[in-house]
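Blinded run. Sample ID left blank on purpose so nobody reads anything into the name before looking at the predicted structure. Input follows.
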Amino acid sequence: MKHFLLFALLVFLSPALVSAGTLVLEGKYQSKNLYVLNGPMENGVGFCTYEVSINGEVSTDEVNSSSFEIDFSQFQIKPGTPVIVKIKHKDDCSPRVINPEVLQPRATFEVVDINIDKNGIFNWSTKNEMGSLPYIVEQYRWHKWIEIGEVTGKGNIDKNSYSFKLLLHSGENKFRVRQVGYGDISKKSSTVSFISSVPEPTYIMGKDTKGILFSGETLYEVYDAYGRVLKRGYGRNLNISNLVKGNYYLCYDNVITDFVKKGKPFFD
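Blinded prediction complete.
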């Protein structure tokens, strides 16, 4: 009988023996704390959570209440540091973190330097990145910003350096980088310009209107009268044989023009 009572007492006093699970959150510290709703046990005695740890170290936060805050400052964690938060709870309840998004990366970068060198390489350096997010490289062309590539962000709070090989059009070129963080909130760099010596290409259309030939390699897009993109690519040859008879808009280099497709579409 004494052994039974001793075992029952140990089970009552040791939450580890009655635990049912661990709620795990992973991300990067963004200088914000987590807030937890911590319901009572089914029997009304005590609260759900009994231990919180951050990167393997047990927190000193007071968890014996209906709600509590997980304070990262006690561990002197630097912003941008990867964190694993474990909330251990008992078997007949489950705590709820009301703001888990604070561990998700946001676009917080600050540009230290941004330039285009003589070889057409786009260079930029940043600081204050608090998570690894891709940099979207954009070029202003055809009266709009278009995406021309991506570079993976390093996510370091200290200085980060990046580069990207550009496809230049004739005349003045404008570029920028952009990141999109949690909640689809984006941040853009300033615009950097570069004057290119690339000559503006010309084009001719075959008499059968099955193709367009540019005098030099170029990006191009073809739109119909409703603004839908029908063709997109890079090169000297643009095949329009499968377009139906009608009027179209042609974008190439940094030029917007139009053309008329005659005859029936040809399908291979």
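Unblinding after everyone has recorded impressions. The mean pLDDT is 89.
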